[in-house]
Design brief:
189 residues; 29% helix; alpha/beta; two-stranded antiparallel sheet
Length: 189
């Protein structure tokens, strides 16, 4: 889905915009993860490098995969993830996983920092070589900021191992509200 479509919803239906003009409004290329796609069969890590987690096998029924550019980044730590952790609708979301292009130790420390009592049940997974992120075509060039390519900020609503909804931030790192608690409430509330 082209991210410029989000801007187009504010225009009257009679407004005609050429495809070239639509592309001009896009700040990033389209996400290639599509509704109906299967979750990639790629190992991630949880807690330590030897503890492999494969979301294609692990995520049964309904759930969320929340992708973030970096653990411990200001917006992720201050508002993005706390919005999920503190949401009453989280319990009805199914299994919830946070994935970042970080190592297992960093993700474990971040999870303990954000949810020390583990009340949310959210699991924090590392994608150290970005293979999972790249398989979803959700990586972006960010070496100048983070030292290597990272994940766009996204939320995938998953059901029975397939993507049911895909919400991807158009500017790669911003927080536009799709990941706020109302998103959970409108999806499962």
């Amino acid at each position: 889905m082209s991210h410029s479509r989000g801007l187009l919803r504010f225009l009257p239906r009679s407004t005609t915009i050429s495809p070239a003009c639509r592309r001009a409004f896009s700040t990033t290329g389209p996400a290639f993860v599509n509704i109906g796609d299967r979750i990639p069969d790629i190992d991630l890590v949880e807690g330590s490098p030897g503890n492999k987690v494969n979301l294609a096998n692990e995520l049964k029924g309904k759930g969320l995969i929340i992708g973030v550019p970096a653990a411990f980044s200001p917006s992720c730590s201050a508002s993005h993830l706390p919005g999920y952790i503190n949401s009453p609708a989280l319990k009805s979301a199914g299994q919830v996983f946070v994935v970042s292009v970080n190592d297992a130790f960093v993700m474990k420390a971040w999870g303990v920092t954000l949810d020390p009592s583990d009340k949310s049940g959210i699991r924090f997974l590392g994608d150290p070589d970005a293979k999972f992120t790249e398989a979803l075509d959700l990586s972006f060039e960010s070496a100048a900021i983070f030292g290597n390519n990272r994940s766009k900020r996204y939320t995938l609503v998953v059901e029975d191992g397939k993507v049911k909804e895909a919400h991807v931030e158009p500017d790669n790192t911003g927080v536009n509200g799709k990941e706020r608690p109302w998103f959970l409430a409108t999806t499962w509330g």
